[in-house]
Each structure stands twice: as structure tokens, then as C-alpha cells.
Amino acid sequence: MGTGPSAPAALDQGTYDALRTPRNPAGLALDGAWHQISPRYVVSQFVQNAIFIAVVVIAALVLALVLDQSWVWIPAGLIIVITLLTLIILPRQAKALGYMLREDDVVFRKGILWQRMVAVPYGRMQLVDITQGPLDRAFGVSQLKMVTAAATTGVQIPGLTQQAAEALRDTLIEVAETRRTGL
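Request: output the structure for the sequence above.
Response:
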């Protein structure tokens, strides 16, 4: 089995240095190089969650002070605690995200405790989409989505730099065209 398609240099610019190694490679022959996401994804998520927490606090203050509903602090507190807990593990989760271009497919992995590894054959891809929210755009990160015929095998790779997302999209389209399948 040969190596995958040649990976553009943009895939590794501005990304984490070392991918957390998977405990069990799920029987996949991992014969390529792992590529990771940008650390700016974590910063973007922190800002988005800080805005969310501020909205929850403002809504709770309005309900508690204006409408005299003191019970609102219980659900607001739970929402804030859960959001803060997710922010604590977010950097470690981001370092566990990675993808590998192999000869016949692209492998995506994520997860710390519940690890998921998905191999998407190039020939099954129907659409490669790049999306950015307003804050993601401000931090220079994008999300690449690969859509397949089966809903369960679609893959979303968050936190790519704009250059990496465009290079990966172009590489996937080029490989699909040379095989005259998929896209």
C-alpha cells in the first residue's frame, strides 16, 4: 500500500506540533502523516463561550432583578458550570483532533475518552464545503465538511486555518477527479 496524495505544506502551517496518539488505531493501516488543527480554534471557542456565558448572566440578571425570579440562578449556574467544564478540557480535545490523507481515503480522528476514527473513501465524497462563522473569520479558522451519501460517515474538521482548509479542499477534489468518482 502506497502513501496518500501529496499533502500541501499549508496543511501543517500554524497547527499544533504533536497529535495525541490514539490508544487503539481501530485496525486501520495508518500509513500517512497526521495533520492537526490550529491553536486559534481554541481561542475562538473560548471567546464564543465567554459571549454565551455573558448572555446567560445578563438573562439571569434581568429575570432575577426585573421580574423578581430568584429561581433562575439554579439553571443559569448549571449552564455556566457545564460551559466552564467544557472549556477546561477544550485545549486537550483540540490536540486530539487530526486527519490523515491516505491512498484511498481520508482518516479523521477525535476524542479523548470516547475516541472516534472515521475513514472516508475519496470515491464516496459528494461535497467538500468550507464554512466560517463571524468569530471564526476574525481568528482565521474554518471548518471543512465532507459530505457522503451515508449520513453517518460525513466528517467535519473544525479549526483549520483558511489556507489549510482551501488546500485540503483542493487536494480532495483533485484526488476525486483523478479517480473519476465522487465529487
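Residues 42-91 form one domain.
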